[in-house]
Fold:
Amino acid sequence: MKIRYLPHMADIRMKIEGSTLEELFIAGVLGMGNILREGFCDKNGPFVLKSKIELMAQDETCLLIDFLSWVLTTSYSEKAIFCEVVFFELTRKKIRAEIHGRQQSQGFDEEIKAVTYHEADVHKNNNGDWVTLIIFDI
Amino acid sequence: MKINKTDILKIEDFLWEIPKAFHPKMRVPARILASEPLLDAIMEDRSLVQLVNVASLPGIKGASLVMPDVHEGYGFPIGGVAATLYPEGAISPGGIGYDINCGVRLLTSNQKIEEIKDKLEGLSKEMYAQIPSGMGKGGQIKLSAQEMDEVLLKGAEWAVEKGYGVKEDLDFMESKGRLENADPSMVSEMAKKRGTDQLGTIGSGNHFVEVDYVEEIYEESIAEAYGLSKGQVVVLIHTGSRGLGHQVATDNIRQIMSAMLKYSIEVPDRELACVPFNSEEGQHYFKAMCAAANYAWCNREVISWEARTAWRNIFGPAIEPLKLMYDVAHNIAKVETHLVDGKQAQVIVHRKGATRAFGPGFEELPKSYKLVGQPVIIPGSMGTCSYVLAGASRSNELTFGSCCHGAGRRLSRTAAKKQVNAPVLKENLKEKGIFVEAGSFKGLAEEAPIAYKDVNIVVETVIDSGIAKKVAKLRPVVVVKG
Structure:
């Protein structure tokens, strides 16, 4: 799993890779959590706050963006950062999962307004790994 | 898609065009309002590719446009304007942005900078204490479900009714601080939940509250009408609809993307997702967007109340209260009447990082401004200056009554953080007489003056193109950031 932050004029551009679709989705959650609070997921376990999700979308790109948007919304409503994902079902068009995190009483480092579809394109690279860019509106 | 300088035609000294023939999907030409050096700078990012993409929107009229402060966004460029034919033309949430009705307002005082110089440091700390800023900071007001619906319906009027605002302010806001098409039932419960405790908060990023003084007056008669004079202290507020607006946009982009197939609409970028304005999904979004816009006007009115409280706490209860000069949105869609193909027609004007700039005679303006045109407030950066302009009638001819909204970024956040030592910046600004209170040094570095284009050049371009008149220059002395 790889997470990299690339330059963007006004927002945050993140590149994520995973050997499976599950890994790619986990990379998205960890990468976003790291923007909300740097290093939070590395040291704040166990992640006792849980929330379940079921989503359908027209393709794997929309599914990932919709999933991360939902995780972000839950972060704001619960004032928490999520770091783990347990998958019950993950296909290219459907996800059923549970996210695990922890409340963050000291606030976040960054306010992400939204996870955008712009430049997002979930696909396999030449090494057979799943990869996409994600632009966060800051 | 690659755009070369040779693909761009010069129409006037400050107006450039990428013709419709450039790309088969373009329905109208793409126009850039810029001086040649600014155009060269604009070509360094993907703004113009995004502008060309916007020109493919169903029902778009005239041209897709960018202002001189444009920079790359997601889908639409920031600093973009697009007008689609009412009622069946497209409405695209991406053409408004996630921060619905992000905007600016200017409050005027009756004090001169020389009179309050020794109180600026205390004022900066009091402003920071009174106005919640930064991530996760809730406001003093916790809305019940019924109160939330009232805010979404009434906008700034709600704040006035509850004692958080001033009745006289309402006349001095774009659309009087309330869009009539708002429907709270179109706003999701999650969006409402996110907005419950955020009224009266500025958030983070490029949002701020500043105390400035009027350094220079350019048009005496217009400045007089606006109540501005040299040396006068003013307060500038920049923020929007906070988490509620972000959620409204997120909810609706998803819904609209799924609906596009039904209307046989294809777009070159998912963030340009759109549907006919008069479709069920289009109306759902528009009514929710109007509600979020009302929340933003209410938010800026409550922040003004907090700023007025800080003012009284520092200068005493007898001090003349701060008076609202004007409040304008720069992320919004509105149905307006403009000249289209030689005839007056109703269009849905999307402004994303662009300010309405109507000239003299516009009916909605308060009586005292009707002869001089609508105030246009252009924030610069924390260490430079901001401007008050007046909309001119040529804006209706060239830009669907629109103007720029700021300086525009020239460095990415990452690049700014690499180049700027925030504690040193804060000290340097203090030496220049600018007191900064910020939630984090990281945020301060990202918003450093070096990260922005020269606002003077941007403003000169809009003045020279004739879409606005230069009225006053403002110099910051206190900056509060999230």
